[in-house]
Write a structure and sequence with these properties.
Layout: E1 5-8, H1 19-27, E2 30-33, E3 37-41, H2 44-48, E4 59-62, H3 65-77, E5 87-90, H4 93-98, E6 109-112, H5 117-124, E7 132-137, H6 143-150, E8 155-165, E9 178-181, H7 184-193, E10 203-207, H8 209-217, E11 224-226, H9 234-245
Parallel strand pairs: 1-2, 1-9, 4-5, 4-7, 5-6, 7-8, 9-10, 10-11
Antiparallel strand pairs: 3-8
Helix pairs in contact: 7-8
């Protein structure tokens, strides 16, 4: 079966200059984008049940733009004044710059790593007496809490948002040769929306070992994955896959 259409289960890239667009033009493919999951904020009334008082903290750790958005959303909903004295620790420079959406950047104490939490821990070790708050999703990896615990850093988690399945009813009668997933939640969303889904000749791609495992756990056939040594990105994996299938 030749590959002619691909559905990427993520939002469409913001610009036309992106590797997916290049791939589509090069191989005459139809590539569509449709998020299979969405992020919902935890309401303030539910957050209060966790008894986490944001005012008690002196430093905030951000691991994503989503965590930034929902932290400041919660402050607004709970009428919490943004303190000039708060320190912000961001896992990457781009997340640090994103803070400008909510605060005057040059007037705050902001630290950022090089996209890994180990980089950021170097800065956190310089301020061992701060009381840290970590905004997180309802389902999250334990890397940050575990490393803060190991370093004897005082912190609390703030569960401010959750990932849920998107409504995919508009895709009911749309068929693609390849479906590409980037998280276990995306795979679960497919089967939640279409419990009678039968894979047949539809190919499935997965980014990351956790997503690949989710595909297999749901008894679906995994046809391609990334990153792997010969394909460090999903677009590279797709290109190699299309080359073979469309000979």
């Amino acid at each position: 079966m030749k590959i002619r259409s691909i559905l990427i289960s993520q939002p469409r890239p913001e610009t036309e200059k992106n590797p997916y667009n290049d791939l589509a033009k090069k191989y005459n493919l139809k590539i569509d984008f449709r998020p299979f999951v969405q992020v919902d904020g935890i309401p303030a009334k539910d957050f209060r049940r966790d008894r986490v008082d944001i005012n008690c903290f002196s430093a905030i750790i951000f691991n994503s733009r989503t965590s930034v958005d929902h932290f400041f959303r919660m402050c607004e909903e709970m009428k919490i004044t943004i303190k000039d004295t708060w320190k912000y620790f961001c896992i990457s420079e781009s997340i640090a710059f994103y803070l400008q959406k909510y605060i005057v950047y040059r007037k705050r104490k902001i630290f950022f790593g090089n996209s890994t939490f180990d980089d950021l821990m170097d800065y956190i070790h310089r301020f061992p007496n701060e009381k840290y708050l970590v905004p997180l999703s309802e389902v999250h990896k334990n890397e940050i809490p575990d490393k803060l615990c190991a370093a004897n850093i005082e912190f609390s988690k703030a569960i401010l948002y959750k990932t849920v399945s998107a409504d995919l009813s508009d895709l009911k009668n749309v068929n693609y040769d390849v479906l590409v997933f980037f998280s276990p939640a995306g795979v679960a969303s497919l089967l939640q929306n279409f419990p009678d889904f039968v894979q047949n000749e539809t190919c499935i791609g997965a980014f990351g070992p956790a997503t690949a495992k989710a595909v297999e756990n749901h008894k679906l056939r995994l046809d391609l994955m990334a990153p792997v040594p010969e394909a460090p990105s999903m677009t590279a994996a797709l290109e190699q896959f299309v080359k073979v299938k469309n000979k």
